[in-house]
Design a protein that fits this description.
- Helices cover 46% and strands 13% of the residues.
- The chain has 378 residues and is an alpha/beta fold.
- Among the domains are: 106 residues, Helix Hairpins (Orthogonal Bundle), CATH 1.10.287; 140 residues, Rossmann fold.
- The chain has a six-stranded parallel β-sheet with strand order 3-2-1-4-5-6, with helices on both faces. The chain has a four-stranded antiparallel β-sheet with strand order 7-10-8-9.
- The longest helix is centred in the N-terminal third of the chain and has 37 residues.
- The relative contact order is 0.07.
């Protein structure tokens, strides 16, 4: 396995080995010929002089400090010139073809990704541009790159790569439920994966690939953060069991927004404004300065209002949660079913929960703890 990985990582060197071997062979043969024919002349006193003349002649530099004087030496020089031009041209052509091939593979989404700490976006639908717009507003020092994994035509992806060049976007073509495709996206070095309802094949967003993709991602990297966007909320339970950290359901809040338009005009507009990536008064997460740990939430509000002209509305923290599926066996035996039934009978929630804990609108005298970040508007 390590040998195959080394071969993939050094494909450029392996492609050049035959050409480099030919160059070395011409250099050695040429140096031997020149030394054998010119050894008795004062101009070439050693084999290294002959080797220097051979390399300079092959590369068409031609310093003129060392030149053969005999007829045989000059015939050897002609051989070196012709052979040198051929092998050096072959080296240039080989390097050019390799880079052209790599560029073509990259444009087609077939090249191995080497990013680290990046976000993988699996699937394609019309809302992906909203996702990229939001990521584009992240400060430059917090960006680690985005890898889009889907089966859209490469020419369509060229537009996205051009429009969001600031995000350092890479593209991987293929079925994101398969291990080879996710491996090309370098999932083992990724920090997070987002799975979208895919519309790349049928044109209609569907959830049928979401669960298999989540299982495959988690099998390749257990501790990666996985977030799923789904259409059918009946899939939530299965995704939670697969270890997905959070699930967002399409149009989950439409009823609330419509009712707000009737009963409390302005609420829907306020929500839309906070969710708009292009608006200055958007909803976002900000780091709490270390000097405010142990102080009251009121102090946090004063800090963000005075320094950043935004309003702190809550606190959020991320913790590793113990999940029921981590305790039960993978085959879900009769004993596991019995344990889960007893949990439910005791009123204990057996749903797998993510490690994100939100404390919205805490009391003003609430004491801020370590690892808590602020949720702000502005």
């Amino acid at each position: 396995m390590k040998k195959k990985s080394w071969l993939r990582g050094n494909s450029l060197l392996l492609s050049l080995l035959p050409v480099l071997g030919a160059i070395v062979a011409v250099a050695i043969v040429g140096a031997v010929m020149v030394y054998a024919t010119e050894a008795h002349h004062d101009n070439i006193n050693s084999f290294w002089d002959a080797a220097w003349y051979t390399v300079v002649t092959m590369t068409t530099v031609g310093y003129g400090d060392i030149v053969p004087k005999s007829a045989l030496g000059r015939i050897a020089g002609v051989f070196i010139m012709l052979a040198g031009i051929s092998v050096i041209s072959l080296l240039t052509a080989t390097i050019s073809s390799i880079f052209v091939e790599q560029r073509i593979m990259e444009n087609r989404g077939l090249r191995q990704i080497k990013l680290k700490g990046h976000t993988i976006v699996c699937g394609w639908n019309q809302r992906i541009k909203n996702l990229l717009e939001t990521l584009n507003n992240i400060p430059q020092d917090r960006r680690a790159g985005v890898v889009l994994v889907n089966e859209m035509p490469p020419e369509r992806m060229d537009e996205i790569l051009s429009d969001y060049s600031n995000l350092n976007i890479k593209y991987v073509y293929g079925d994101y439920t398969k291990e080879p495709t996710l491996s090309r996206a370098n999932v083992k070095e990724a920090s997070a994966a987002v799975i979208l309802p895919d519309a790349s094949q049928s044109g209609i967003p569907r959830d049928d690939k979401t669960l298999p993709a989540a299982l495959t991602v988690k099998s390749l990297k257990r501790d990666i953060k996985v977030y799923a966007h789904i259409i059918d909320r009946e899939n939530i339970t299965h995704l939670k069991r697969a270890g997905v950290d959070d699930v967002i359901v399409s149009d989950d809040h439409v009823g609330f927004l419509l009712a707000s338009e009737i009963t409390s005009p302005g609420i829907a507009q306020a929500v839309a404004t906070m969710l708009n990536a292009e608006n200055g008064a958007r909803l976002r997460r900000e780091k709490v300065p270390s000097e405010f740990v142990g102080k009251k939430f009121a102090d946090i509000q004063g800090y963000f209002k005075s320094r950043h002209n935004c309003i702190a509305i809550g606190l959020v923290t991320e913790e590793e949660a113990v999940k029921l599926s981590d305790i039960l066996s993978s085959d879900y035996s009769a004993i596991d079913t019995f344990i889960e039934r007893k949990f439910k009978a005791a009123g204990i929630d057996t749903m797998e929960k993510g490690g994100v804990h939100l404390n919205l609108n805490p009391p003003l005298d609430y004491v801020v703890r370590e690892k808590e970040d602020a949720i702000v508007v502005g």
